Each structure stands twice: as C-alpha cells, then as structure tokens.
C-alpha cells in the first residue's frame, strides 16, 4: 500500500461523498436502509467513516442514488478498495482506538487539553508504561507492551524531520503533580516535556490550579485538523468503552473557542517551562 494512502481518511472522504450523494437525491438514511434491506445504523456508520465499506456497498448505494457517471462510480469503488487496506497500526493487532490513530497519522495539527496526564505524544517510555499499567491493572504484560509500542510509534509524527505534526498542548497542573511510576520517572518525564517544548512545531502550556474553574473543567479533548480542505476538522473525546468523534462545524467551533480560552488562561511558554522545571526539582527532595 502506498505510504500516502491512509485507510481511515479514505473511509472519511468516501463517507462524506456518499452522504453528499444521498442528500442530493433528497433521501434520508432510513429510506436508503429500507431500499437496501439493511439497518439505518449501517448507513450512518458508512457515512461517518467508522465502518469499513466494501465495493459492493458502494455499487448498491450508487444504484439507489442513480449515479450514472461511470467515472464517479469507479472513483468511489477505488476509494472503497483503498479504505480496506491496513495502516501501520494494524501490525500491532487489535487496537481499541485505531480510528483515532488513523486520523492522527494524517492530521496536520493537533490541539489537545489534558487534565490528568501528560499527552501521549509527549510521554517518555517509562511514564507510558507506568501510566498504562495503572490504568489497566488487569491487562497482561504483552498488552501493556503493545500499547506502549504503539504510543512510541505515534510519536514519530512529532519527531519527524520533514512535515512533523504541529502540536499544541494545554496541560493541567494536576497532570504534573500526579506521581506516575516513581519520582525519577516523573523527573525524566518533566525534563522531556520541557525539551520537547523547544521544538519549533510544539507548544506546551500549563494551566495552574490558581486559575480555578475554566472551560476544560469537564475533561480531556483534542482537535485534529487536516491538510486537505476536503477533510473536516474532528473533535476527539476519549471514553472508557467508546470514544466520541464530533465533526459538525458548530461542534468543532464550540470546542475551538473553548480551547482559545484555555490557552489564554494558561501560563505562556516561558512561564510554563519554568513552572515544569520547578515541579521537577521538587521531586528530587
């Protein structure tokens, strides 16, 4: 598979095009489902890119939408074929957040707010191991190692010599105070965080306790933006058993405005580095 073919992004683009064709036809997802004798939820999952779509599905949908241009049908069929290819993350087996990894892999920029932990893309290996082990106490060591390896592989986007991911992270003070692993793990992690913050495409800000209530008080979220204008931005909210992906313009705008408030209330870059360094020194006592 060519390196520039991301199956997750292919599914999103294909789903968006199928939704456009349905809306041009003036049909609801329920009406399409009735015509094809499938569930409405299947049509919805195909359109939002959360489900693999076969070439047969594309053919059947194009038939319902009366798409007569063979070139359009062939193009959509090829997208369906590409979307069923495997991304690099499939080599690690079953990953519960594989949809997010696919989006992150293709994203141009990522804005993330983390209230409880250092963002995954900025974690050291020792911190990641301790964090995942604590979060999944019943997981076997092999599963912990797999998740850590995936996290390490994701970090290649941040450290890539060409076209690295633009990352902006606002981190709550509690994430720096929570001892994950032991004090030495925290010292190494905080020093690494400061080091990464010096990369020209990485911005780190800390939101101190003294700021009180703020727009991110309800929890973690991330906003992904893509280089292709055809790919709408996505707000990602991680859950325990399932994740939430918001793509409607109003939702993305609302979370973007919230993020601007978080950035405004957080310490600036230099203050953040000093703040993190001070906390790191406190772990040596």
Automatic annotation (TrEMBL):
According to the UniProt entry, its GO molecular function terms are: DNA binding
Per the record, the domain of life is Bacteria
The cross-references to InterPro entries, in alphabetical order and at most eight, read: Cro/C1-type_HTH, DUF5753, Lambda_DNA-bd_dom_sf
Gene3D superfamilies attached to this UniProt entry: lambda repressor-like DNA-binding domains
Residue ranges of the HTH cro/C1-type domain?
Answer: 18-73
What is this protein called in UniProt?
Answer: Helix-turn-helix domain-containing protein
The protein's organism comes out as: Streptomyces parvus
């Amino acid at each position: 598979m060519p390196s520039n073919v991301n199956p997750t992004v292919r599914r999103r683009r294909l789903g968006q095009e199928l939704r456009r064709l349905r809306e041009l036809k003036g049909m609801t997802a329920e009406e399409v489902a009735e015509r094809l004798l499938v569930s409405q939820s299947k049509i919805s999952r195909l359109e939002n890119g959360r489900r693999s779509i076969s070439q047969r599905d594309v053919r059947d949908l194009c038939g319902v939408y009366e798409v007569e241009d063979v070139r359009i049908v062939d193009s959509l069929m090829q997208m369906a074929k590409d979307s069923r290819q495997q991304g690099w993350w499939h080599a690690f087996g079953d990953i519960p957040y594989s949809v997010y990894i696919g989006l992150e892999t293709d994203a141009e920029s990522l804005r993330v707010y983390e209230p409880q932990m250092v963002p995954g893309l900025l974690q050291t290996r020792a911190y990641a191991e301790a964090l995942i082990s604590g979060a999944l106490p019943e997981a076997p060591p092999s599963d912990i190692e797999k998740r850590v390896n995936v996290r390490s592989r994701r970090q290649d986007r941040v450290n890539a010599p060409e076209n690295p991911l633009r990352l902006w992270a606002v981190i709550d003070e509690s994430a720096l105070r929570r001892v994950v692993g032991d004090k030495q793990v925290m010292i190494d992690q905080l020093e690494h965080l400061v080091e990464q913050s010096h990369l020209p495409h990485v911005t780190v800000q800390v939101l101190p306790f003294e700021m009180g209530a703020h727009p991110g008080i309800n929890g973690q979220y991330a906003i992904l933006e893509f280089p292709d204008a055809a790919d709408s931005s996505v707000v990602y909210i991680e859950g325990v058993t399932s994740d939430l992906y918001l793509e409607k313009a109003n939702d993305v705008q609302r979370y973007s405005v919230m993020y601007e408030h978080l950035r405004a209330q957080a310490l600036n870059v230099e203050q953040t580095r000093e703040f993190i360094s001070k906390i790191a020194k406190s772990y040596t006592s």
